[in-house]
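USER: My hope is that you can spare some time for a protein that puzzles me. I am handing you a single protein, as its sequence and its fold in token form. Walk me, if you will, through where the backbone shape changes along the chain. The protein I mean follows directly.
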Amino acid sequence: MSDAIQAAVDAVRAHQQAPDTATLHDMQQKVQDAQNQGASLQDIAAANRTS
């Protein structure tokens, strides 16, 4: 798994644990970064389920 996907997964989990504006913006940025590096939302979701 790429570092960008792992960072997105970590940000998703952080937002799930503490759903506020700061974690939402961090999650959005990390997901966008992963997508900019070629990951799909499906890739991120699959990594979230398996890691």
Summary: The mean pLDDT is 96. Residues 8 and 32 are 8 Å apart (CA to CA).
